[in-house]
Amino acid sequence: MGIVEIENLRKTYAGGFEALKGVSLSIEEGEILALLGPNGAGKTTLISTICGITMPGDGTVRVGGHDVVRDFREARRMIGLVPQEIHLEPFTKVIDTVRFTRGLFGKPKDDAYIEKILRQLSLWDKRDARTRELSGGMKRRVLIAKALAHEPRVLFLDEPTAGVDVELRKDMWGVVAELKSSGVTIILTTHYIEEAEAIADRVGVINGGELLLVEGKDALMKRFGQKDLHIELTEPIETLPAPLADRGLRLSADGRVLSYTFISTGERTGITSLLNDIAEAGLVMRDMRTEESSLEEIFVSLVKEGAA
Amino acid sequence: MNWKAIWAIYTSEMMRFFRTLAQSFLSPVLSTSLYFIVFGAAIGSRIDQVEGVSYGAFIVPGLVMLSVITQSITNGAFGIYFPKFIGTIYELLSAPVNFLEIVIGFVGAAATKALFIGAVILGTSTFFVDLTVQHPVAMVAFLVLTCLSFALLGFIIGIWAQNFEQLQLVPLLIVTPLVFLGGSFYSISMLPPFWQTVTMFNPVVYLISGFRWAFFGMADVPVGFSLLAIGAFTAICLAAVWWIFRTGWRIRS
Questions:
Q1: How far apart are CA B193 and CA A8, in angstroms?
Q2: Helix (H) or strand (E) segment spanning residue B107
Q3: A108·B4 Cβ contact <8 A
Q4: What is the pLDDT at residue B91?
Q5: Of A51, A80, B195, B225, which has fewest CB within 10 angstroms of its CB?
């Protein structure tokens, strides 16, 4: 059994909007699961329902075997939550707000542990700063420190890098990797495919309140193993020579690069005959490279499938 | 019970109070002094005595109640409105705490602050009048109960309020008139008979009357009524808060 077990979870808001339409998901201990979906897909609702921020809908959620409604105390003790928006008391010192969370979760005071997480998140030097004096990236780290203050086994990160610049994002990924190595199970939502690709073990794609699929990141990449072959020519051409016309090739605007898309996991990729034809057409190749399709493309095709 | 959580909420709320201690301390001292100058010295010198008590001393219980009630409501309302406003309420909702623990933490802190200010006002008034307390235990009990019940009312207002205007509305439009017309500065017996009857529908009358009884041994209404009124008021507020958390009204979508 996974550390988080979600069964047929439904959530309808007071206005009648059905944000979750029966989501089932099992999350293994120690993994990083990325929930990928566009804005309004139901990612935040899913997390909020598990963590107790919204009123529970139908279905069950168990964390560490504890029902999040019936045994909310045991379940919530295991959960840390980093919200999407930066919510911090502006006049409170960093160390005080982290201590507060630990107390709120019923844990005895432990300054050595607080020091450890503040150091891990490079916040130790800022421990006596008021949170309003911190930069956006630092504030987000404080939120993570708060979420870790009670030693949770499962950490939910709701869009941890939304609105964060590239450098900070990489930084945050480093933090997540470190947390994983300390044994924490991490569920993060994102609409950056790059992010899921960079740090997740498994990826769940969610749209319109439904979980479209959950798969290992590598398996997902393999399954949608679309690749692009780019062939650079020594001399630019204006149009494709006749024998190549109906092979699905794309010519770049400057006439120097031919692109060809194929399924790398398929039986026949058609590359050999393509290269023969190119040689026969008298074109001279200078360079050649292949490119795996990104999760972005996979995602777009999935969402389209779901909508169709 | 998650006592550590209650303590965490209580102390973090009190820390906010101590950050603005000078302001919290000065404002009641100043306003009490002004009340004594205007009502005690200027007007009071012409009133002489009310039911055997000097007017200056007579208004002390009302003055304390006026501030304590206003402070309890304001602190109680602001305490829970603030996390709602800045979004940190997510933490309370996702923590292993139940509604009672949240209420004890916030309302306890709001009541403590109000109690502190009540004590400051009482202390300040001894500079102006000679004060004797005939029933000290009852006096403290009334004060504590008032702080708790009105902090609870404030808590409800804080959850109900969706903006700062609403946050101010109830204290301003309802509570201040009720307290002023609740016999803070006069004895109910000084009113014409018709208004005496109307006043009996004002719950604050029972509080001030009971509180005054603790000081001077005389009251507008029997002290048992006062206790009953404040007990019923507390029970209604508690029931409302229980309902709010059960339904998630204005806190959980």
A1: 67
A2: helix B99-125
A3: yes
A4: 95
A5: B195
Mean pLDDT of the residues in chain B: 89
Polymer length in residues for chain B: 253
pLDDT in tens, B81-121: 999 999 999 999 999 999 889 999 999 999 999 999 999 99
Letter string b/e over residues A11-33, b meaning 16 or more CB atoms within 10 A of that residue's CB:
beeeeeeebbebbebebeeebbb
Do A51 and B92 make contact, defined as CB atoms within 8 angstroms? Answer: no
Report the CATH architecture of A225-292: 2-Layer Sandwich (3.30)
Q: Which residues of B touch A54 (CB under 8 A)?
A: 252-253
pLDDT at A263: 78
A83 touches chain B (CB under 8 A): yes
Cβ distance B96 to A72 less than 8 Å, yes or no, reads: yes
Question: Considering CB atoms only, which of A81, A87, A103 is closest to B88?
Answer: A87
A141 touches chain B (CB under 8 A): no
Closest of A92, A137, A129, A98 to residue A114, by C-alpha: A98
pLDDT number for residue B54: 85
Query: Would you state the CATH architecture of domain A4-222?
Result: 3-Layer(aba) Sandwich (3.40)
Sheet holding A58-63, edge to edge: A18-27, A4-12, A58-63, A66-67
Enter the pTM of the model: 0.85
* Helix, strand, or coil (residue B53): strand
pLDDT of residue B198: 87
Q: Domain limits of chain A?
A: 4-222, 225-292
Alpha carbons B218 and B211: distance in angstroms, whole number: 10
All residue ranges of chain A with pLDDT < 70 are: 223-225, 265, 293-296, 306-308
